[in-house]
Fold this sequence. Notes:
The structure holds two protein chains of two kinds.
Chain A: E1 9-20, E2 23-34, E3 38-42, H1 49-57, E4 64-69, E5 72-73, H2 79-84, E6 87-90, H3 102-109, H4 119-129, H5 131-135, H6 146-158, E7 164-168, H7 176-192, E8 196-200, H8 204-210, E9 213-218, E10 221-227, H9 228-233, H10 235-240
Chain B: H1 2-33, H2 40-57, H3 62-85, H4 93-115, E1 131-133, E2 136-138, H5 140-162, H6 164-174, H7 176-181, H8 186-211, H9 218-233, H10 238-258, H11 264-278
Helix pairs in contact in B: 1-5, 1-8, 1-9, 1-10, 2-3, 2-4, 2-8, 2-9, 3-8, 5-6, 5-8, 6-8, 9-10, 9-11, 10-11
Amino acid sequence: MTEPREKLELLTVRDLDAGYGDAQILWGVSLGIAQGEIVGLLGGNGAGKTTLLNIISGLNSPKTGSIHYLGEEITHVNTYNRVRSGITQIPEGRQLFPGLTVRQNLLLGSFSLADKSRVPEELDFVFDLFPILSERQKQLAGTLSGGEQQMCALGRGLMSNPKLILVDELSLGLAPVAVERIVEALKKVYREKSLSILVVEQDVHLCLELSTTAYVLETGHIVKQGPSEELAKDPQIRKSYLGI
Amino acid sequence: MLTEVLQQVINGLVMGSTYALTAVGLTMIFGMMRVVNFTHGEFYMLGGFFAFQLTASLHLNYYVSVVVAILAVMAVGFVCERVLLAPLRGKSIDTTVLVTIGLSIFLQNLALLWWGPTPKSIPLPFSNTPLQWGPVVLTWSRILAVSITFGLIVLVHLLIQKSLLGKAMRATFQEKDAALLAGVDVERIYAFTFTLGAGLAAGAGVLLGSIFLIYPSMGNIAILKAFIVVILGGMGNFIGAICGGLILGVTEGLGAGFVSSGYKDAIGFVLVILILMFRPSGLFGKARRL
């Protein structure tokens, strides 16, 4: 989309091995995200994309390997402290709090903000980004349409004033027009806030269009990495992911 | 006849409110943490004994003792949660059940060792002569019990519905991972929930202990009643626990008055069998969200 603003490393993942019980999901995965960069992560079902995101956000722990964020090791830091330091994950399937209102969902997003005086500002930003959420703020989140839920999930993530957003399957199960709307919003967020984004997407076109660098994950191994433009031209990727 | 019904209903509501108080804590801990807390009855018992110790031995003011006893049991609950349950997070429900049963046996026998098996009564600052309220007879301790109980229930309800902490509790209940990702320290929420639940059980123990007697095994029947109420209201259902408690209390009151007081405690079990046969998710439909 745009050139990275500066090539300062924000997040470095080194030699991650991870899995559930005997089933190993990730094999020696390494990945880096520079400040102000959008990184794409491609891969089919079961490649280990969500597991990798969950390890970065701290929901899962790796067997071996390390994660560094802003120069400090955070491999064993718990999730809420990672959120506090600016890592936010927009989980796959939205995972809103269905019994709370849209507004309550958003406000909980800023639960970790030390400076609560920022909350109204963040809320305004989200409502400006998605005016529909402002209209529906008193409605229970469980009653929103899929697209609105995704907006609410993204909004909730933004409420913590993140430095790094991990977006898991933004487009999953949504109408193309809703996807377009949310992608536009994500681009706007990227332009207006100085943050980095890790996009996990099954929609390869979308993923390569959004990102400057991308990684391809296959059955737990990083099999390819490079500038997204080059990957988009890669014959193997065109064949196996773009169906061309 | 009508007077008698009214009297039994009132008695039932007094008992029922304390059942509700015990059950609210139990259902909250289950709903939030997926822990079936068999120690709940011992928190109830400890509430009674702490209040007894404070009033009878230390001659503290009764009302101060009630508050201090509840806070002391909350401290016990907090330590139990941190030391025994926190390390078992994510383990199967059977594991935590075994731990809470073990803890229950331990605390009950500790109380037996410390206070002995003889039932004790908490000295009250007011006379317990019955007051005639129109056709109904009530004692001060019962009026006090029902007022404090409802006060506590309303407070907890407001805490859960209105405060940011309460919203974080509900968020944890509804989507634990998303709550973590929103920056909620879920561990702190668990510790707080368990501590609060223990405090509510202790409150019920102090108040019923002021009406009846206190003894080390008094928690056994209390926790059975609490389980009945939780099943009546639906597991993890706050409002259900309150209504379930009142229903059980009134049914018991009427049953004791008109069938036989010997069958009083059996009535709850008949209710549970009926509920499990016909409405296994509780009287209040599918488990309502906190």
